[in-house]
C-alpha cells in the first residue's frame, strides 16, 4: 500500500472482533508513535498501553466516547515537567506532538490490518485514578485498537478546493 | 457486611456512563448530549431485554434507529435530528399501545442465563 492509500483507508473503527493483536504489531504501533516529530524534539509524551481485558472494561466504564470492546488501548499523555522546557507554549505544543504520535500509530495499525479510533471523550479524573497516572502527567487522547468487525464507510471530507487557499486567503486552488 | 464485584453489573455500567457523560457534556459539542442519551437508551434496551431474557421486537426497531442516528452525529446533523424525531414517535407508539412483542428466545440470553 502506498502512503496516500493508507492515509485515505484508515477509518475510526468502533466495533472490534475477538481476534488478538500480536505483540509485535503492538510494538510496531508504539514504535511508530515515538518516531513522530515533536516541538524542539522535547518528546513530552508518555504512552500507557492497556492490554489487560479487565482493565480495558473498566476504562470503558469512564469513557463515553469509547465504542466497542477493543483488544488494546494506548493512552497518550504528556508529562508537564517535560513540556515546561518549551516555555509557556509547552502544553499546546505537547497536544500537537501527541496528535502526531497518535496519527502515526493509527496509520501503522491500519497498514497491519488493525482498526483504531482516536478518543477524546473520556473522563480524565477517573482515568488518572484507574491507571495510577501521577499528577504531573496529563492524559490527552486514547487510541483504541483491534481487528475491526467491519470497516466503516469513509465520512465526508471537505474538498481540497474549499480547504486550500492559494498564496492568499480566499483564492481557490484549481487542478 | 458482604461484598460483591460491581463492574460487570449492567446497571452499574449505565451509572458510570451517565456520570462521566454528565461531566463530558460540560465541555463537548452540544450535540454530544443527545448522543450520550441515545447511547444510554441502547444500554437500557439491553437491560430490559436481559430482564425478559428475550429480544423485544419494538425495542429492536428502536435499537436499529439509534444505531443509524449515531452514524449521523458527525456526518449529517439534520438526519440525526430526524432520527431523534422518529425515535420519539416510536416510543410514544409503544406507550400508546402499552404492549410489547417478544421475539424468539435468544440463545444469547439462555446460554449465559443473563
Ligand atoms: C481529536 C479527536 C477526538 C476524537 N474523539 C472521538 C471519541 O471520543 N469517540 C469516537 O468515537 N470518535 C472520536 N474521534 C473520531 C472522529 O469522530 C473521526 O475521526 C471522524 O468522524 C472522521 O472519521 P474517520 O476517522 O473514519 O475518517 C475523534 C477524532 C479526533 C481527531
UniProtKB/TrEMBL annotation, chain A:
<protein>
    <submittedName>
        <fullName>Nitroreductase</fullName>
    </submittedName>
</protein>
<dbReference type="GO" id="GO:0016491">
    <property type="term" value="F:oxidoreductase activity"/>
</dbReference>
<dbReference type="Pfam" id="PF00881">
    <property type="entry name" value="Nitroreductase"/>
</dbReference>
<keyword id="KW-0285">Flavoprotein</keyword>
<comment type="similarity">
    <text>Belongs to the nitroreductase family.</text>
</comment>
<feature type="domain" description="Nitroreductase">
    <location>
        <begin position="65"/>
        <end position="147"/>
    </location>
</feature>
<keyword id="KW-0288">FMN</keyword>
<dbReference type="InterPro" id="IPR000415">
    <property type="entry name" value="Nitroreductase-like"/>
</dbReference>
<dbReference type="InterPro" id="IPR029479">
    <property type="entry name" value="Nitroreductase"/>
</dbReference>
<keyword id="KW-0560">Oxidoreductase</keyword>
<feature type="domain" description="Nitroreductase">
    <location>
        <begin position="7"/>
        <end position="57"/>
    </location>
</feature>
Automatic annotation (TrEMBL), chain B:
<protein>
    <submittedName>
        <fullName>Uncharacterized protein</fullName>
    </submittedName>
</protein>
<dbReference type="InterPro" id="IPR046074">
    <property type="entry name" value="DUF6092"/>
</dbReference>
<dbReference type="Pfam" id="PF19585">
    <property type="entry name" value="DUF6092"/>
</dbReference>
